[in-house]
Amino acid sequence: MKKKTLAWAMGTGAWLVSANTAWSQTSLTFYGVADAGVYKLARGPVSVGNIQRSYWGIKGSESLGGGYAAVFHLQSRFEIDSGQVEASGGSPLFYGESTVGMTGPFGQLRLGRAMTPTWALDWQFDPWQNFDRVASIAWQIYHPSYRADPYRTGPTGDYSRMNNGVFYDSPSVSGWSLHVSANGERSTVPDANGTIESKRGLAAGVNFERSGLNFLVSAERNSVNDKTYFLGLAYGPGRTRVMASANLTVLTAASQAFLGESHRRRSSAMLAATHQVGAATLKFAIGRDFQGYGQSGATNYVSAGASYVLSPRTKLYVGIGHGRPANEGSRTNVGVGLNHSF
Q1: Are 148 and 199 in contact (CB under 8 A)?
Q2: Can you tell me whether residue 62 is helix, strand or coil?
Q3: Measured between alpha carbons, how far is residue 172 from residues 40, 106, 177, 237, 292 in Å?
Q4: Domain segments of the chain: what residues?
Q5: What are the residues facing 341 on neighbouring strands?
Q6: Whole-prediction pTM
């Protein structure tokens, strides 16, 4: 009995040493944002819920030696007012991202579901980081009518994320970096118009970030041959930051019919700025959707807001956004919210 007990103890000790060694080489992070506010969109009712996104995620890495590491990232979004998974298209549990891959001297390579390079980097040119349903003009006009993955996630596809994807991010060299993604599969199931995927979705972006200057140029083609192009520039190493962006989308006839778009070419542009005053940040933006969605016609936008830092992880914010389509009545959004990160 004593020999068995000793063997069990030695085996358990060896397992613990192995587990502790593995754990010492692993980085595991649980993070998220809880966001809630009171807002009114256009002529709709007063609502309580997310103004910006609420989400949680888990990401980790394990050293493989020689500067290489295995990595994974899972992110889910949720409705703060009900606790349910956010109703975005097909609403997968890990809507935000689900990838696994490797990092090393070559950069980072991931497989799974994630944002394409354009969507992953365009937030740099919007005071609301393309993440606010009340005040963000980018939310309304970035990459108009373009779907990164037309056949997955929901009945109309996914506007910013690619399923079954391969994602590569290069190391930064003197501030410059390259970002590429591609579809790994094609769907043979026709959509409502009988269209099937004829191409592999491809996307690429070149980003520069140094000394308060940000620059991005990107191009994408989805699996039904729609294309979108984006150009962004921002500068401001001090309290004031100015941002400008422009984008063009070219739709196929099949996508026009599916989305109810009257224009093959969709384009938009935006100019914005932020200014810090103590713990507060003031935000302003103007933009134009040169064709407008559906039959709405060219639409002008203007928005303003402010955020106030209550602590390193908590901020209070307020915003107002106004849109004026050529062929429809104007619409105004207002809201105030609280945002806490963890």
Answers
A1: no
A2: strand
A3: 42, 10, 5, 19, 37
A4: 29-341
A5: 33
A6: 0.88
Token pair listed for 108: 């980072």
Q: Is 86 helix (H, G, I), strand (E, B) or coil?
A: coil
How many Cβ atoms are within 10 Å of 327's Cβ, its own excluded? 11
pLDDT at 220 over 70: yes
pLDDT value for 102: 98
Burial 266-300 (b: 16+ CB within 10 A, else e): bbbbbbbbbbeeeeebbbbbebbbbbbbeeebebb
What's the one-letter identity of residue 28? L
Q: Which of 159, 144, 126 is nearest to 270 (CA)?
A: 126
Contacts of 178 (CB under 8 A, 6+ apart): 168, 169, 170, 204, 205, 206, 207
Q: Kindly tell me if the per-residue pLDDT of 150 is higher than 80.
A: yes
Average of per-residue pLDDT across 72-99: 89
The amino acid at 331: R
Collect all residues with Cβ–Cβ distance below 8 Å to 268 and sequence separation of at least 6: 141, 142, 144, 246, 247, 287, 288, 289, 290
State the pLDDT confidence band at 25, using cuts at 50, 70 and 90: low
What are the phi and psi torsion angles at 151 (to 5°)?
A: -110, 5
With tokens 């941002």, the residue in question is: 243
Model pLDDT for residues 176-202, shown as the tens digit of each residue: 999 999 997 877 777 666 778 888 999
Q: How far is CA 283 from CA 62, 240, 319, in A?
A: 40, 10, 9
**Is residue 304 within 8 Å of residue 135, measured between CB atoms?**
yes
What's the CA gap between 25 and 332, in Å, rounded? Answer: 51
Identify the architecture of domain 29-341 in CATH: Beta Barrel (2.40)
- Rounded to a whole number of angstroms, the CA Rg of the chain reads 23
Q: How many helices (H) and strands (E) does the chain have?
A: 4, 17
Give the residues across from 338 on adjacent strands. Answer: 36, 316
